[in-house]
Amino acid sequence: MFACLHGTGNLAALALEFSPVVEQTGPQTVTLDASGLDRLFGLPHDVAAAIARRAGETGARVRIALASNPDAAICAARGFAGINIVPHGDEAKFLGELPLEQLDPSSALLETLERWGIRRFRELAALPPLGIAERLGPEGLRLRELARGEAERKLRPIEEPARYEDEIELEYPVDLLEPLSFLLARLLNGLCTRLATRALATDELRLRLQLENRAAHERTLRLPAPALDSKSFLKLLQLDLAAHPPARAIIAVWLGMNPVKPRPAQGGLFLPAAPEPVKLEITLARIRAIVGEGNVGSPELPDTHRPGAFRMAEALVGHALACPSRNPPPTARGAGACRLAFRVFRPARAARVRIDSGRPRFVAAEGVRGEVLQLAGPWRTSGDWWTPDPWSRDEWDIALSDGALYRIYCNPRGWFVEGSYD
Amino acid sequence: MGTATVLKRRFETVLGDSLEWQSRPAPQVISSGMPALDRAIGGLPRGALTEIVGPASSGRTALLIAVLAEATSGVGLLACLGQSGRAAQFPSPPEFCALIDAEDAFDPASAAAAGVRLERLLWVRCGHNAEHALQAADLLLQGGGFGMVAMDLGDTPPEMARRISLTSWFRLRRAVEHTPAVLLAVSRQSNAKTCSSLTLECARESTLWRGAPAIPAHARLLDGVRVHTARRKPGPAVNASFLVRTRE
């Protein structure tokens, strides 16, 4: 059984209250699969009355028709006012008085039928099918079927907006990671299956744990590239929760995923071979657990002349593939010559420096001690004087008697060894 | 005549050529970024541990940075060393590399100036903990996907570096075996012993200053150093020297 609602108001929402299979047939018409509603409401009249009652509550003004096929219900709803039940087997008789314009035929076909003197459903329904097929072709046959109320088709249901989130309320609080992992695995498997059925992946996992004290513990994991691997996601969540454990026992778990289109599996022929993004993310999470947050990433050079300035970008592969020219391209190296590297002492080592004739003659710092054998400098540099954190210093390159080459500098706070050339 | 010999003869009859049962596939190597060194040692082997050792200011970090620049930029030549010692070369694609910095001594600015593509470099700062550096290297090698994993233990005190057990080095060697990754370790002295496949020792031959000593210091410039590299392992010592400049 199918029901058609024709009128004004939010008809789709009204129809979805009664059936999950709803077709938006036209701007003012929706059709729903009403099979099974008789078990809830009783006879078709009762079903129609229930729909009309709900429409009245929501303020929708509708005509309602119930029929054994969708097109008969649509014609009846569009053609007759109020509530109509099209009797099964008598569709042609019920719809017979409706004008042919209801079927929305092409203008040429309508003109032909007009010339033949056929203006109503019953007149078209009475014509022999063979003659219609010979003279009007498939469109004529289709119109005849509609006029007789015999057209069979499936509804094209409205796509319900998909939500990729799920939650579990626990009967007793969980305070260990292992039992929580089982719950997370269950949620992840369900969400990943839902994403997979729509050929989607995710680039963000959002976890919200409701704690015993009614507080919420929220974590968001952003993946460098879209992925759909529940086992890897579980490992990432486990590592993240191990690094950031909730303060109290957990009474509810909510997990959401951001649906995105999956990344094509194959990269370009000339793109660098890269670690698999999700696998790398797990590795990095493990390394972060060892060396600490903020100590793993890809270095970035900020736009400043401040010595030793850098930033750590957390993402490596995804970011590099997305925007390969994040840093300025390096200068080409000449054949056979490479650049002298600099090793930085972090933090710079405070030094005692003996000055003679305005030049450093002896330097002593942690792990550095010796007479200055050769030197070049000073070079006075300064910058950021327009900010609250300006800097200025005098630099020397020195060769010490301990055999190494160092860069030392003097600023208002004293002397420091910045690092060594190597 | 043993069964193996009979089988070998039958195979040779079928295949029409003599079989080298003991032969192994030629090791794949990458360029060190220094043509003089590549000519001498043939490149750095993949799937093996290479040690670069030397005192402070010996040019070991410059060599490490040159290797990283070559690998991340993909401008170098990939060489396949044959039995005859001749290398077949073809352009290498850029690779993602990891630098595990035990003493937090890496300078991104000078590395970028030397040609390292920082966006293809993973930097792990271990905060003066060599033990963490070993664990991170192990995880990265097990995870795979990197063309090179370099461990910088250059400022780690020798007594602490010596405390790293041979088992740890052996574990790293096993982890890198049969992978296309190059494992590099930079330190003051050789620690991996038998676990390394190639050991290069760097020493500073001379320091180049621009400007005579007599002129004022502010008119002088540290111009570069000449580095002498000696292959200590495998086989007989092979020497090479190259120039490392502070600027182009």
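The CA atoms of residues 134 and 168 of chain B lie 8 Å apart.
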